[in-house]
């Protein structure tokens, strides 16, 4: 039942959205189904609730978090749910006529229903976390509703303001709720109520209170967070009527009531809530007087009334709680009707500015009458519901135990009474009496009956409650109070007449004072002339702009899109995280370390490397030269590998070096020949300094590692290489067997590199930095000699491949030994010629190579159930030839061979065949004297 | 066949995409239809394999797969525990949506798309599954180089420059990775993470300083990939300029860095008895907080839609660092849930932003001014869902993740974490509200004399919708995911079980190591 | 000389090369060498711009001996020059008119000129009728040209008619 | 004696390498540098062979072979670059 | 010997880092090349320096670590070399394209920026 | 090792390393590129050849087998094939940078000259000592 109650608005919202093509009336009806059916359900449940039962359901949701889908309909929830649904139904009815024909009604109603659902969920939630969920959902859906007229800047800004403030509060509330959960061990309301002592004794209680109250105060627009509410008035009036009288702002005070049993009763609670309530009460009321916008006045008045309610809950006495609950209901009824009336006025006159309105009582007689009655209720005039709760408020104010607070609260209450009468008077006087309306574009007449009906219904409620509270509202109030205070309710009387007592005198004094104040103020200075100062919005704007400015400036300062800066930070991080902590270890190793002696030839090599490295840096701006010098570094590194027992490495390094030079030269054709000096001297020094630090650190670490005794798994690799890996070149066995998976990844990388280059250059047209005049050089003699070399190179490639498992070599090396001579053919004969003679689809070679490698690895899986890449070995006897040793790893190596050859050739051939741009003219190069084009 | 393959489950998420990637390359000249068929067949096969793997891991078993039947310390072992299986599953689910989106036409424009896509998946899955540190490097490279291709194929202009940054930065990081690996091998004598962890626990003090240095370098590498302060500067531009489907897939790439930190700094430099135990966590915690703050400011300052999402990606990675750095089962569990959520949602937002871009005509990506927009209600809804989710607002998955994290923060850190997380949530909310307002509310009606853009294709809707639907799924059926994440966290914080599983796993036909 | 065996000397060379490489004359390796000898020239032939036609192959031996000997002798000369004072050197260019028209012959000639110290072939004109040679120590240009033509070009004309 | 000769020769070759390096680093023209690098490669072959003799091992044969066969490729490409800029036309 | 190699590694690293921090694409590529030499030597040196004992098993020589150098770092370096080459190729092409598309080989759009 | 072989190998090594050194010395000492080109391309090649012969003898004597030793001939063969290519191309490159050094054809024809612009400061030209 409760599930259905809650689901209805959401379901109907979806329905409304999906049935976009139906008439507006149908849409409204569909939308109306939710609150009406909901009310029906609620009515069905009412006897039980009034009888003291608490219908509950609970479904597990995110159990590890303690978040359960628990719904719980106690008196408080029942009261709020009724209010949400009843006023919701009236608002739907009102909105159907309010909305312009051009407006997107389905969207409006869907948002409204979404909000209604969120609100319902919040009041029904039996789990605090769930409550927080729906709480934020109300913020989100109200954002959509306030910004519904999105073409209007005010609306957009108001919506964002509301979302920011209430969203912030929601996040704080979430924190508070989690803290409560940590104290209680559960988020279920019953458990939370039961743990009242624990919560209030917990060290986190102040934090809980701060966070929860932050949520409450923002949502119910308490000072100093109140300023969002007037700006939310940019919303369509039905929205204001709903959100800002009965629902959204009431969510805050609802929560105050909801958590009252758990949080209230401490001094901290009393002082904080009471003072904030009192401040809000006065600030709202004072500001309301000076609003020119009808809805602005109502909004500030709402703030003031919410302050009043908050204050009551702050007082925390049972009677204050009852008064608070009572005022919630009363305020909802008169304020909703006032908003709707304001909407009608706006709708009919085209303005809500009281400076242009006036004398409407003749033009809109019914509306005027209704609005005046509702205003009187707001002012707390006897026979209307507002009077009753105000009276109770005064009574409670006078009974505050603490002396100072009693005086403060009483004075505040009295002042608020005066101010309330004053702004009510202004509302009535400036709108319905006096001169006017001025500069109104439309002809003013009464709106359709169904637009007035909701106002009427609400005003009737105001009257009924005001005149006969015991017959109308008492049971509901009692049930709600029981939801907050538990079964033992205090003695209270809802009678109209309690005899002449201090509260009554205060009321009367307030009324008189208000009248005097209003007319006095008008005499003193022209209320109309007072500029509306949106101080809150101004502050918000300044803050938003400041935050945005800080964010922009900061982000731009940090990430200005400079690669250099990114890399600089990497180096800094390396020094900080990697090199600095190494210092003690380095010092120790320098003390202890004694390396092996080195022959002079070794020092020669060292000098070669150091000199070439230094020269690379010194000459790096002359790119071709730097490239040649780097070649010497590469050669030096290969020689180091040779001397230090790594023939495979030396081979690979040499071959890769050659291909890299080719690559760089190909690229250099499309890059400037020289680097411009673009760094300041200071920056060069800074970079040099950090480079030196990094170099020293890494060199030091290498030294420390080298001079330390080793303890590795290598011995086992050596021992098992021949018997189990069937190869005596252990490095190759590691590559194709022990760590064949690495190699698989490696050739994948290699192949992908080919694909990337292909993808980037295939259609690219790039202008060379310099184009030599004349036909391409034919170099017949070198071509001829290199051609002689080609079959030999093929043979060497095959040799290196076949021997690789036992001697230096292997698929990778062999693949490059095949690719480099072919590259040479490209260089000497031109790419068109080579490709016309050997039309290779290198992409395909990569694919085939990968598949071969994979299949070699997969075969033992499928055939023997052994893991991927498990190697096998066989020595089949062939006639004439004898035993041929075959390791399955060689199949894997074939894959390597193919991918490497295909990848290298794809890269190089693509780079060699870049086309110049189509339309642009080739750059003509002036020839040096004495030379001619051939 | 299936029965025969079941012992090989840990290797299948790598092999299948490799195989289908290679096949796609082989038949590249046969047209896009065949390419798509190959891509989707591969995807389907991967889904099945990953599903089975997930089920296996969910039993709590830590499965070691000895490649080449070599003992783990000699060869390379793949390890499927809850953490890696979960991440592989996340990757796969993400990939389905990305592929769907790309099949709306990007795959036609970008050369080798299907091949590269599959190979990228192989790289990602490999990185998550390997138990060997050098092999992790190799798969990082596979993943990265494929990402270069995906990022740059079919691109030009500013994307090239962003690509250059991305490539150079990552190569620098990879070089550093190698340096760290070299040092670690020299000091510890092994590359298998379990073995390394065992050796770290018994280091002499002199060696400890050196190992600490090497692990510091490694941390820099992972943080650079994961885009942690001050190493995230490369990310926003690269991601913001990537084609949508690719940017969406990239949402998991930063998570690889985060994952690596979690894995390596729990297993190798974790809470063992050694003196390096957990040295990295305080660093990560504070930089994580700062990164979260700065990334959120970046989101607030973003001048384009995709830049905004790029910053949100950084923010989500930072949140993960905070969660992991606290290194309690509860925080890590919360982090893992958040990881899954943020991957899907940021990816989804990339796609949504791309859809929006397509409907804005010349205004495109720009957030600085409100261009015209071809009205599209579902688009707004998708944006809304994504925004609510990524800001951590109820009721979607981001909220659950954040609530789990806030709930789990230990006492001493509560103020810092709560303050930062809540504040950044709010700022994110502000940024997104501003964005939505700018794009949808301030939009001018489509000018009559300009031909309106065509509405998004069905595959595009499906891709973006699927990702956001994952998020909703994580919300509605979040409990099992949270439970899985918490169990995974428990498992990953107890390296002893991992090491024991490593010891117990022996080769089938070979002698185990002494 | 047919399609399957485009260049027998090349095949022989590959055969020998393979056996030298593996340093093993077992039947298996012989067979493999044969396969290579047949296969690789075919593959390489795909790229060959101009086929080689051999004339008197016996002259190769004579020429080789001559070249090796010249290399040895004149290397000593060059070494002396390098070690001695540089002032004594009179380097210079000469154009060697070519009678050879076969590109393989020209290539061989150029290589020989380069390998024998003191001279270096620097350029071949487009029409293949002149070879630019740089001499380390040029005393008499005409004599040098005549010597090159007599000692090397003449036998090469026999080998590559 | 041979062993000593090998060692001496190794060092002589080392000296030659440094001389080639000097030309490579000093220039002044690009062809000079190319020549320096080319000579460095050829010197390396000698060094490799001598080192193999010194260690009585033939595992460095492959490296020497590859340099002899392909070491000139760099020279060719660099020269072609100087000549034409576009090394693959 | 160790000192000399450490010196070389340090110098290569310093030079590489310095060039990497320049702002032109080609300079950075040179820097990366030097860095990758440094890295390869460093990984290689992690197997300790051994002269004349290549890990190619010889018949009759006992297969223990005393007779051969550690083969594993060599295999790692091989993989590293290959991957570095692949990455260099991609970087070069991206640099070419970036220059062609953006008209400048400066790696940043807005010129240099100081952190 | 027999004294004869010992002396022969030593001599070969001495000659070989001498020529290698001479080649490099020429490279350092001589003033003009084309002069420098002569040293390394020939002396060094010959020197390496001598050392290779010594190596073949040495390994044969040590018992590695003549068959394995002989393959080092291949290195010499490849060197002899490739050295002229390098030298030729380097000479062409140098001439292209200094076209005025190149003589005209004797019979008055203008030979074709590869025209090369100054490729920028230092990148290919340099100041060129001597007549360079
Ligand atoms: Na294997
Ligand atoms: Na070209």
Automatic annotation (TrEMBL), chain A:
Membrane-spanning residues: 6-22, 29-50, 76-96, 108-126, 132-150, 162-185, 205-229, 269-290, 363-384, 404-428, 449-474, 494-519, 567-588, 600-619, 624-644, 650-668, 688-706, 743-761, 782-802, 808-830, 842-869, 894-914
Residue ranges annotated for the NADH:quinone oxidoreductase/Mrp antiporter transmembrane domain, each copy included: 125-415
Membrane topology, as annotated: Multi-pass membrane protein
Residue ranges annotated for the MrpA C-terminal/MbhE domain, each copy included: 683-771
Every MrpA C-terminal/MbhD domain range: 608-673
Keywords: Antiport, Cell membrane, Ion transport, Membrane, Transmembrane, Transmembrane helix, Transport
Record-linked Pfam families: MbhD, MbhE, MnhB, Proton_antipo_M, Proton_antipo_N
Compartments where found: Cell membrane; Membrane
Domain NADH-Ubiquinone oxidoreductase (complex I) chain 5 N-terminal as annotated: residue spans: 64-109
Record protein name field: Monovalent cation/H+ antiporter subunit A
Higher taxonomy: Bacteria, Pseudomonadati, Pseudomonadota, Gammaproteobacteria, Lysobacterales
TrEMBL record, chain B:
Assigned keywords, A-Z: Cell membrane, Membrane, Transmembrane, Transmembrane helix
Membrane association type: Multi-pass membrane protein
Domain of life: Bacteria
Transmembrane helix as UniProt keyword: yes
The UniProt record lists the keyword Chloroplast: no
Segments forming domain NADH:quinone oxidoreductase/Mrp antiporter transmembrane: 131-428
Record field: transmembrane: 6-27, 39-67, 87-106, 113-130, 136-154, 166-188, 208-234, 246-268, 280-301, 308-330, 336-356, 377-396, 416-433
Ranges in coiled-coil conformation: none
Compartments, record wording: Cell membrane; Membrane
Main location group: membrane
InterPro entries to which the protein is assigned, alphabetical: CPA3_Na-H_Antiporter_D, NADH_UbQ_OxRdtase, ND/Mrp_TM
Recorded family membership: Belongs to the CPA3 antiporters (TC 2.A.63) subunit D family.
Alphabetized PANTHER family for the sequence: NA(+)_H(+) ANTIPORTER SUBUNIT D1, NADH DEHYDROGENASE
Entries under NCBIfam families matching the protein: PRK12666.1 (NF009309)
Protein name: Monovalent cation/H+ antiporter subunit D
TrEMBL record, chain C:
The keyword Membrane belongs to this UniProt entry's keyword annotation: yes
Chief subcellular location: membrane
Topological relation to the membrane, as annotated: Multi-pass membrane protein
Subcellular location: Cell membrane
Keywords: Cell membrane, Membrane, Transmembrane, Transmembrane helix
InterPro entries assigned: Cation_antiport_E (IPR002758)
Name the UniProt record assigns to this protein: Na+/H+ antiporter subunit E
Organism: Novilysobacter selenitireducens
UniProtKB/TrEMBL annotation, chain F:
Low complexity composition-biased segments: 111-121
Membrane-spanning segments: 12-31, 43-61, 73-95
This protein's name: Na+/H+ antiporter subunit G
Biased composition (Gly residues): 122-132
Keyword terms, alphabetized: Membrane, Transmembrane, Transmembrane helix
Region (Disordered): 101-132
Organism: Novilysobacter selenitireducens
